[in-house]
Design brief:
- The chain has a six-stranded parallel sheet with strand order 4-3-5-6-7-14, sandwiched between helices. Strands 11-12-15-16 form a four-stranded mixed sheet, with helices on both faces.
- The protein is elongated and about 60 Å long.
- The two termini are 32 Å apart.
- It is of the alpha/beta class and 376 residues long.
- 35% of the residues lie in helices and 19% in strands.
- It has helices spanning 30-33, 65-80, 97-109, 122-134, 160-174, 191-204, 222-236, 248-260, 277-286, 299-311, 343-346; strands at residues 4-7, 39-43, 53-59, 85-92, 114-118, 139-142, 154-157, 179-185, 210-217, 242-245, 271-272, 290-293, 315-317, 319-321, 326-328, 341-342.
- Helix 9 (277-286) links the parallel strand 11 and strand 12 (290-293).
- Helix 5 packs parallel to helix 6 (191-204).
- The protein has eleven helices and 16 strands.
Length: 376
């Protein structure tokens, strides 16, 4: 039986905090502390059962480095909990909602005890999650949600709204509330991308002096970010005062486009976009003012731990948030946006650009060499 209580428990404590720098914010997620609302708790007693368990993970894709890091964090968590597992089955939909729907049905047919799902798109996956619930399979979502909350137990994430608002507020203040910006979103239809754009526009719409020249989706691809920004530079040139990107994935591609267009160090407009080591490296190397609000892939590892709480019949917060770092170029903090850590101290200059911060794997995480062992 589903029982909801209203509470302000520390349900959103951020495990797997940032591992890249020593002086980052390590407390409870501020999006939990400052949330003016309350958290709903799901009583998972009906799903309590003894292990070992068959767990299924339906992944939207590993189409960019962030998603690779999230998968690796989940696999690392599976290795840490291998004694609780009979099997751990992973499917990859390659960003195809139809394939993901079939993947979920296949996982159910294989007798999974619980499902972890990172949806390709919100609307397309909603009916699939509902079918899983009707067949008695509890579902935990990670990174991306679906519209109908009654169909899943918990959504493990970080605040897309905070990311969108903080980055947009920094850019508006950095431009002294006057300027023309371009917006580089993530994957069209994916809930994080859409929520971040809406949140950023809540900020930009407050300042008549800020004009959004154009909004483009990049599928969170560095290559797409570079291609799209190259076209925007040709179209708008020096009229571009700033670039709002919701991730360092396309943000790094944008900086590369300005470099390819002949912009000198220190002359590239301020950028937003976190997570991706390559963007932090480019900011340091080419003196690009930036703010990054990390969206930690460690949410995957956290979500995997939540699965065992469900199967243990505990009370589960319907929304669990992990901690986010605010990373700002030194000398470029604004009245509203102060740094947890400066870019120069956060960037891993001796690591590959493909490294994603806060992976949930460990301090020495390298996506090229990562491996994990668990029952398959």
């Amino acid at each position: 039986m589903r029982i909801f209580k209203k509470t302000a428990l520390a349900a959103a404590i951020g495990l797997f905090a940032n591992q890249a720098a020593a002086d980052t914010y390590e407390g409870v997620p501020r999006t939990f502390l400052w949330n003016p609302g309350t958290s709903s708790i799901f009583d998972a007693a009906e799903y309590k059962k003894d292990g070992p368990y068959v767990i299924g993970f339906s992944n939207a894709s590993i189409s960019n480095p962030w998603r690779v890091a999230m998968l690796h964090g989940i696999e690392a968590a599976a290795e840490r909990n291998a004694d609780k597992l009979e099997r751990f089955i992973i499917t990859d939909a390659n960003d195809d909602p139809s394939k993901q729907a079939a993947d979920v049905q296949d996982l159910i047919a294989q007798g999974v005890d619980i499902l972890l799902v990172s949806p390709a798109t919100a609307e397309a996956m909603d009916p699939v999650i509902r079918r899983a619930k009707r067949q008695g399979i509890p579902v935990v979502l990670v990174d991306r949600s679906v519209p109908t909350q009654e169909n899943f137990i918990s959504f493990v994430t970080a605040s897309d709204q905070a990311l969108g608002r903080i980055s947009a507020q920094w850019l508006a203040e950095k431009l002294n509330f006057e300027g023309k910006v371009v917006m580089l979103g993530g994957l069209a239809g994916a809930s994080p991308a859409e929520a971040r754009i809406v949140a950023a526009m809540e900020v930009f719409d407050q300042y008549p002096g800020i004009e959004v020249l154009e909004t483009q989706y990049t599928s969170w691809s560095p290559a797409n970010g570079k291609t799209i920004m190259s076209a925007l530079i040709q179209k708008y040139g020096q009229d571009i005062s700033g670039v709002w990107a919701d991730s360092g994935l396309q943000g790094s591609g944008s900086i590369e486009a300005f470099l390819a267009a002949g912009y000198e160090d220190g002359a590239i407009p301020p950028h937003t976009g976190g997570d991706f080591n390559a963007m932090y490296q480019l900011s340091v190397q080419h003196n690009v003012p930036m703010v990054g609000v990390d969206y930690p892939p460690a949410m995957g590892a956290r979500a995997f731990e939540v699965l065992f709480d469900v199967l243990d019949g505990k009370g589960i917060p319907q929304r669990i948030e992990v901690n986010q770092q605010v990373v700002v170029s030194e000398g470029h903090e604004t009245a509203s946006v102060q740094a947890d850590v400066f870019v120069k101290d956060y960037a891993l200059m001796d690591k590959p650009g493909s490294v994603i911060m806060s992976s949930g794997v460990g301090a020495d995480y390298d996506p090229a060499t990562f491996s994990a062992t668990y029952p398959k």
